[in-house]
Each structure stands twice: as structure tokens, then as C-alpha cells.
Amino acid sequence: MESKQKQKDSLSVVDEYSLHVEEGGRQSEAQVGIKILADELMADIQKANIQNPYLFLPSGTGTTALFLQKYLPFKVFTCSCVGDEVYLQKQFELLSQNGPFPTILKGTQKYHYGKLYVKLYVLWQEIKEKMGIEFDLMYDPVGWSVFLEHIDSLVGTPIYIHQGGILGNISMIERYKRKTNML
């Protein structure tokens, strides 16, 4: 090791056994994995012969949306699930000074990160029943809510990126159950 405190973007070497990684996804090192995801998406889109695709995914730090926009030849749309649109734009700019940046869609209702909303839980249940797909309960209901508000104004074939993390749904459902007046 050249230095015990060598800095590389959002990673820092603490000692020969430890590496400090900032919390959250806003790290330029994520670009490598997201490039692989973009390549896989392109292969799937070509295989399925999807015409005029666009991508939508909800964002925390926006890292995935930002790097997908960099590596995909079509529009990437996102919405902020953690802060507001200004916060999300700043996150993009911390990773890339000159883009290309995804398009941030704004919903008519502001949701506070981690707060329980009956409307979002009901939407999550409806989508799960209609599609037969269980989505993440933290980011995806906000994402679907914003996406559905804008879907009629977006041109092309939508591809929604599932946020994963459904293991966290167990504790989220328990939180909703404890708020019995909500369900």
C-alpha cells in the first residue's frame, strides 16, 4: 500500500485489512457493475425486439439511473425517493460534471423517505396482484406512483427496473401491520 489513507473516489483504505466505503450507492466504482447491467439490458431488448424503449427506475442517490443513462442509447427516467429533485440532481453532479443525466420526473405528492403511506401500500398490493411480481416496498411504490402519473406523456415502450431488496418487505409489512389503523 502506498498510503494508509489513500483516497479513491468514495473509497478509502484505512489499513491493510480495512476499506471504508461510504454509505449509499453514490460511488463511481458502481459504474463497472452498472455497465454490465446496461449491456445485459441491451441484449434483452434486442432479443425481445423491443422498439423505441425507455427506462424508468426510482432513485435514492440516482447512481444506477445516472450510469444507465451513460451506457444506454435511449432515455432513462427516474424520480427521487430520498430527497427532492434538487437533491437528486446534486447527486448526479457529484458523480458526473457533464452528464448525460437521466430525466427526473416529479410526482404531485411529496413522500418522506421511510414514512408509511396507505396509498403506496395499496398501490404495491394492486401491482403485486395484477403483475404477479413482488416489488420492493421502500422505493418501488414511490417509483410506480410517479411513473403512472407520467406514463401517458412518455413516448415509447417502457421498461421498469425492479429495485430488488424484497427481503426488506418483511419488516416493512410488519411496520404497516403495527399501524393497524392504516390497513
Account of the protein in words:
- With 183 residues, this protein is an alpha/beta fold.
- It has a single domain, classed as 3-Layer(aba) Sandwich (Rossmann fold), CATH 3.40.50.
- It contains six helices and seven strands.
- Strands 6-5-4-7 form a four-stranded parallel beta sheet, with helices on both faces. Strands 1-2-3 form a three-stranded antiparallel beta sheet, with no helix packed on it.
- Helix 1 crosses helix 2 and helix 4 crosses helix 5.
- It is globular, with a radius of gyration of 18 Å.
- It starts with 6 loop residues before the first strand and ends in a 5-residue tail after the last helix.
- The N terminus is likely disordered.
Main sheet overview = 4 strands, parallel
Rg from Cα: 18 Å
Which consecutive residue ranges, at least 5 long each, have pLDDT under 50? 1-9
Q: CATH class, anyone?
A: Alpha Beta
Keywords:
183 residues; 4-stranded parallel beta sheet; 7 strands; alpha/beta; Rossmann fold
Layout: helices, strands, pairs:
Elements: E1 7-8, E2 11-15, E3 18-21, H1 30-47, E4 53-59, H2 63-71, E5 76-80, H3 85-95, E6 103-104, H4 118-131, H5 140-150, E7 157-160, H6 169-178
Parallel strand pairs: 4-5, 4-7, 5-6
Antiparallel strand pairs: 1-2, 2-3
Helix pairs in contact: 1-2, 4-5
